[in-house]
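Researcher: Watch the backbone:
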Amino acid sequence: MQVNLLEFWPRILEATQETLIMVLVSLVLATLIGLPLGIALVVTREDGLMENNFVFKMINAVVNTFRSIPFIILLVAILPFTRLIIGTTIGTVAAIVPLVLFSGPYIARLVESSLLDVNQGVIEAAQSMGATNWQIIYRVFLPESLSTIVLNLTIASIGLVGASAMAGFVGGGGLGDLAISYGYQRFETDIMIATVVLLVVIVQVFQAIGNRLSKRLKRL
């Protein structure tokens, strides 16, 4: 039995809202993890502000390990952990757990890349004026790289949109779940097309917002 797309539209809008919640909440939580990890990777590396080879290698290994696991495998592998934290492995909230673990290390690498692009001369100037390491991090590193970090977080958010769609394979909710349940399993082509179009629109909106915000933050 074919589903009437117009009558099904409220369910599509609900799935869109679920996707946005998954992406935005996961982005915030992953940034809270990835930002300090990215900073630590920069300041503890060789010739860094707080050079510490042991700490750098530990963080580097953890980040590389999580980044090497495909999301769909990570999603299934941590189902017991997700159930322990959330109480269930199905639904929008449950999908946030693997999304955060997947994107946190990725954001750490993006932040690391942004901070490494900061002009070394600016850092040396701050040091010559007696700035402490923490002052250099918060008053030099972060302000100087903020525009690039915003662009990189935009990239991460777009990656989360794709990952949230994959979460539909295990009942994660959102547009991915809708596309699989109706578009794939029930051959509802109209619904599949509608979900794809909405995902494209979401990506375009995120990219436009990120580009504009980054441009406004860019230091002349």
